[in-house]
Amino acid sequence: MSYDAHVMDKLRSNFELLRTVIRYSKHPDLKVDLSRIEDIIDRQIPETLQKNAPADFHVLFTNFKNEFEKFKDFILFDKLIGKNVVSLGGGFSSGKSSFLNALMNKRVLPADIDPSTSVPTYIVNGPEHQVQGINIFNTKIDLELKAIRQITHGFGKVDDQNEETLTDPVTLGHVMNSIFLTTPWHHYNHIAFLDTPGYSKADDKNHSAKTDEQIARTHLNSSQFILWFIQADAGTITEEDITFIRTLREDIPKLIIVNKADKKPEQDLREIIAKTKKVLTTKGIAYLDVLAFSNIQPDLYDSAAIRDQLDRWNVQVYESKFARNFKTIFIRCKQFYENEIEQESRRLNRLNKSRTLTDDPTIGECLDSLIMEITRSIAGLKAVNQALRQLQTDFFTELKFISDLAGITMPEPSEIELIQENLKNPLQLLRGYRQKKGLSSDNSAFHLLQATFSNINPVIAGCPGGSEYVNQLVDIIQSQCVIKQQDIHIQDECKASELYAEIFNTHLSLGE
Questions:
Q1: How far apart (Å, rounded) are the C-alpha atoms in residues 288 and 310?
Q2: Residue-averaged pLDDT of the chain
Q3: Which are the contacts of 151, defined by CB distance < 8 A and separation ≥ 6?
Q4: What are phi and psi of 377, to 5 degrees?
Q5: Is the pLDDT of residue 231 over 80?
Q6: In a 3-state reduction of DSSP, which class is residue 165?
């Protein structure tokens, strides 16, 4: 079969894109040698913990490895270094890509695509358009702007002059790990947007390797800020979203966006926002605000408020999340071994006491055997715990060395040692204790707090701003807690709002 010149040009273009995307390099484009730290991750940690590890070690270790892949993104694409990453999260087809297209006022990112072809995409500001990708062989490749859509929507469809299909389209998203877009259409100098594919459970019809919950969680937990998208036609935030958000780091600020707002009348939309705020507050999930958006009418609804929030994030000082996220696995394992050692030590103490109370040789022999077994168990646990501490030191020493070479801010290993896992929300602890003990709430506390705040317009987990609001809060604290005004330090309106929300949430949670 012979093709005309037009068809041949299309076939040649398709072949060049395919050849580029699947290119393999024995020497990935890295500025630093990762072999030593990869040996710690891939060999030393599993070998050390293979005989006795926490029950959730597989999840911890998978998150740990995913976090390292994110760290490599910063090394491979150095334009990310120093940028505050704003990750876009939410269910599949919640309108994340369309939101970014509306911000750039250009239809760059593909929308409404198959989950298996979705590719995590970073967007940063730059004077010229530049597209690079990392394929599954960890090879960095240069692409054209149009390739972003071709990779995910499919390329290779060729029709002859009679409009008969000669070749069917093929998607390449499954061979791409990530895409990096530099463009002047992105107007935030210190923000890198990360468009994630969304999340899904293993039994979900939209589930794929790209939308796996653990990978989605790693993307979001590695960011400095999160935009979480829900669809207006869903009525409110879903229980699946609530469950997933609970697994994200509480210290990452989250702005909730009710997308596709044009699909609902104004009154219905405001009711959806109010209901979403109530659900989030009741569930104990901290958030900055719930705002409406529509990419069909991007200048309407709460677009100005969303842009104001992005402007504030754009001037925030960058703080890396890598050290804290890497430390999670070490903290959890350390807690596991310390708890195991404590439990075994209690058993040993009881056996030793029992041994002193019997003169029966048969019983004594059995007790001696158990005492020796538990003593060996404790020694083994202590040895693994000590080896884990050494691995932690080795890992963060190597991580600091690599980060310095790549220009990534990373605390000293001695400072990382001080990082502890987030404390539990005290309201959640109180609620759990109350349920466990079958206790009912004392409404007197509810009525006392309600009377105290009766003259204040409550803004739950929001940031109303303004010095008048701060002054009101200072007056309440001063009068109710007998504290001098000069001893009350509120850094900004957001902190004031957060403090007020915490106080107000207390009587809501305990009085429910």
A1: 12
A2: 79
A3: 21, 117, 119, 133, 143, 171, 172, 173, 176, 179
A4: -60, -45
A5: yes
A6: strand
Classify residue 238 as exposed, middle or buried by CB count within 10 Å of its CB (0-12, 13-18, 19+): middle
Q: Is residue 98 within 8 Å of residue 295, measured between CB atoms?
A: yes
φ/ψ (deg, to 5) at 212: -55, 140
Tokens describing residue 10: 């299309």
Taking CA 109 as the corner, what is the angle to CA 106 and CA 110, rounded to the nearest 5 degrees? 125
Whether the CB-CB separation of 45 and 87 falls below 8 Å is answered with no
d(CA 186, CA 179): 15
Read off the pLDDT band of 366 (50, 70, 90). Answer: very high
What pLDDT score does 96 carry?
87
Q: Helix 239-246 vs helix 213-221: angle between axes, to the nearest 10 degrees? A: 60
Residue carrying the six token digits 């940031």: 463
Cα–Cα distance, 72 to 66 (Å, whole number): 10
Q: Residues 31-86: pLDDT tens digits?
A: 788 899 999 999 999 999 887 888 888 888 988 998 998 898 888 888 999 999 99
| b/e 402-428 (16+ beta carbons within 10 angstroms → b) | bbeebebebbebeebeebeeeeebeee
Domains delineated in the chain: 5-34+72-314 (3.40.50.300), 35-71+321-422 (no CATH), 426-510 (no CATH)
Structure tokens at 346: 């209690």
Mention every residue, 6+ apart, whose C-beta is less than 8 A from residue 257. Answer: 99, 227, 228, 229, 230, 290, 291, 292, 293, 306
Residue with tokens 């990112």: 109
How far apart are alpha carbons 51 and 54 in whole angstroms? 10
Task: Answer left, alpha or beta for residue 272, where phi above 0 means left and psi between -120 and 50 means alpha.
Answer: alpha
Q: Where are the beta strands (DSSP E) in 69-129?
A: 84-90, 121-125
Helical (H) or strand (E) element with 153: helix 147-153
For the ranges 160-164, 165-169, 228-232, 340-344, the lowest mean pLDDT is seen at 160-164
**What span, in angstroms and rounded, lies between the C-alpha atoms of 460 and 282?**
10
CA-to-CA distance for 68 and 263, rounded, in angstroms?
Answer: 40
- DSSP notation for 275-290: HHHHHHHHTT---SEE
What's the angle, vertex CA 59, arms to CA 58 and CA 64, rounded to 5? 95
Residues 424-453 have pLDDT tens digits of: 445 555 556 666 667 665 555 555 555 665
Residue 52 has a CB neighbour count (10 Å cut-off) of: 15
